[in-house]
Every structure is written in C-alpha cells, then in structure tokens.
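Q: Hi! New to this. If I give you a protein sequence and the SMILES for zinc ion, can you show me the bound structure?
A: Yes, paste them in.
Q: Okay, here:
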Amino acid sequence: MAVNILHPTGSRIGSGFFTIGKAWALALCLALGCSTTHAQQLAISNDDKEFTEMIGKLYTASNEELLEALQQETDDKKLLRYYKENYKYIFASINKQIQNGSVFNIPVVVSALKQTLANIGNQHPDAPKGLQVLLLRSDMPNALTVGDKFVYVNIGLYAHMDNDAQIAAVLCHEVAHLMLRHTMQVFQYHYKKNQDQKEAAKQLREVSTGRSDRAFELVRGYIYQGLKLSRTHELEADSAGYILYRKLGYPPAEYTRVLAMLEKFEDTKPDGLKTESYKRFFNLPLQPFNDKWLQGEDFSAYNYNAYKPRLDKDSVESHPKSKERTAYINKLFPETADAKTATPTAAFTNMKTLAQNHWLPNLYINEYYGLFVYYLLVQLQASPDNKQYKEWLGKGFEKIYEARKAYQLNKYVDVIAPKDQTKSYMEFLNFIWNLKPEELEKIKNYYNAKG
Ligand SMILES: [Zn+2]
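A: Thanks. Here is the predicted structure of the protein with zinc ion bound:
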C-alpha cells in the first residue's frame, strides 16, 4: 500500500461500504452548508479518559474472546496462527485509535446505530445479534467490519447521509459482510496464496499514526490488499444487505442512492477561499500584509479543463464501480429503481448536525492542520466575527508554526499538486509555504490573543 500521509486513502481498497479515493473530499460538509452556529461548545480536543478506558477494556475483552473462538475455525495449527496474526494486527491498529482518542462517543449517535443494528439483527435468523458500535473521528462517510462483534462507523457517515434509511442501508451492507464471513474468506484466500506475514509486518509499522481515517483505511487495505475478491464481496454484501434492508420498511431506492452520495463526496475538493480574504485576515497591526506571500507559480498555465468541478451531476456516470453496483441491485431488485425518497426525522437531523459540527475539530484532531486552517478561513469569510473560529485559527497556526520550525510542515500541509487541486487551494498552499517561521509566529500570536 502506498504511504502518503495526507492522502491515506489513495489506493482504492475496500470491505466497507465505500471505497474512498481521496481523503480530502472532506469538503463536502462545506458544499452541503454545514451548520456552524451550533459548534460553539465543541473543543478541539480528544481527551475523554473515562470513555477511552471503558471502551479500551470492552475492546480488549472482545478481542480475547474472538481469538479464543478462532480455535473452532480449523484444526490446522499453521492456519490458526495465521488467523491470529491477522487479527492481532487489526486489533493493534484499532486499539491505537482507541488509546489516542480517535474512537469517541456521541451517545445519541451510538445508541441510534446500535438500535438500527438490533433491528437488522431481528430480520434474519443468521444475522449477528448484540453488535456493538465503535465511532471513529473520521469525516469520510464510511463504515467497516472485520468479523468481530463491532461495526466501526465514521462520524462522517452521519454528516453526509440524508436520512435514517441511508444509514440503515450502510449498516445492512456491513452486517451482510459479517453474515457472509468475508473477512475470514479473505484470510483464507491470502493463506492459500502465501501472501502472508511479510506484508503484515510491513503494514504493522504503519500503524503509528494518530489519524483515525488513516488507520481505518489501513485496516481495510490490509484485509483486501487490492484483491479482486473485494469486488465480489461488495456485490455480495450489496445484495444480501438489501434483503435485510427491505424488511426494515424504508424506501427501496434509498439503498442505491447511498452510492451516489459517495460519488459526490469523492469529487469534492477544497475550494471557496477567495484571494481578497488573505488581506482581510492577515493584514495585522504588528505585521502588515505582504503581497509577496501570495506570489508563486503561475497556476493559469495549468490546464484547468482537465479539472472536474465538484458536485458535477455527471460524475456519478463516470465512476463505473458505483454504476455497476447500482445496476446490479436495480436488476436483482427492480423496486430499488423507484423514485420514492425517505424524509429525514427530527432525530436524524439533530444527529447530522452533531456530526457536521465535529468536522472542523476532527480535521485538527486528525492533524490535517493545513485543511483545518483552509476551511476555517472559508468559514470566517462567511462569519468574520466568530470568536471560536478565530481562536481555532490561532491554534491551527500554532501547529503550522511548530511544524515549520521542526521542518515537518509537509506532514501536515499538502504540497501543490496542480492536477488534483483547485486554484483556490493551491493559492492557499502557496501562501502557507511562503510564510517564514517568524511570520507564522506573529499570525499565531495575533489569533491566539483574539480568541
Ligand atoms: Zn463493503
């Protein structure tokens, strides 16, 4: 798997509902007009020791149970060891997320997810019962299962879905993966192919990062490692998942509509920060704005015709994978081609707002400091007097300043990549990379005092 810190999901791999191509599609929140007014109480901190300790214990106990139960799977000692090695890797990866606070708790969201999982469990005798939820601080709309009793759900799922039906659709797909024992099938496949410990050892070293979305994709990538099996499993989980879903009484079409949501998400790139805003926010009493900060390469030389605007309606058509999945489900279950949509409940809307409000804090907690500052500035354009945003801007610049001093800026701020980025985002990157440490320090000090 390619290692690229700011684009952890660069390779298309998957056992979750979605295979996400680009992490920085985090921008969808913005495109959807995330509520910002309710964000006031949110802290950019992931420090909830009590919860971390509780969930850590629960997770460890569950892992031990699963490792024990693996004995029943085979009499082949070597194969058993192989299963255990694989699970130990996965558990280590997720455990790291628990310990650093990337697994967190929004009680109302977790209990809604658990309730839906319980409803799904009641629909079929073979459906797993008593499933637990681990909620991750990732903004990517995704969920994951690895064959244990947890469904790993990114908070971004709530931020990006439209209604409870779509959440249920994703969960049904995940439960179907569990029912079909896909993780074990993949392990067996690897074992037969002798694609074993070397790769595992290599990937284990990559678990050191604190970013929840990265660990999430790593685990998925680890399981599937670019297997063709992944495609088969996705289609199987889609169809088996639909059979669970249709018993829940939601409009059939919402099941495939979820796929279109993914496409929107994937095609969304950081955009919206205007050139004139730099002067507005960085012309400071102790440091007048310097036009040179915005000087850089002539981006107009690049061919922007090649760049697809975000939320392009045609983009759904250009992604065969989603199209294929939708066509497959429509063919098997013609009622899914229906036009009827679900109406979001008040409870759903509330949870969606809660999830959206975690978007900016999560960028900070997941150490995407460049994106964090970029989107803060976009938000400040709209509400220039928001005190919390100014305070966060100070904290963002503090991290960027520290990174710059330690020669580690590239770990937290993207480098310019004309093919993949919008003009606005490239201008921003140019600005950040042009600032000298002492200039960053003055910006940091100014906004830290403002907040
Ligand atoms: Zn899947």
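A: The longest helix spans residues 77-99. Let me know if you'd like me to explain how to read the tokens.
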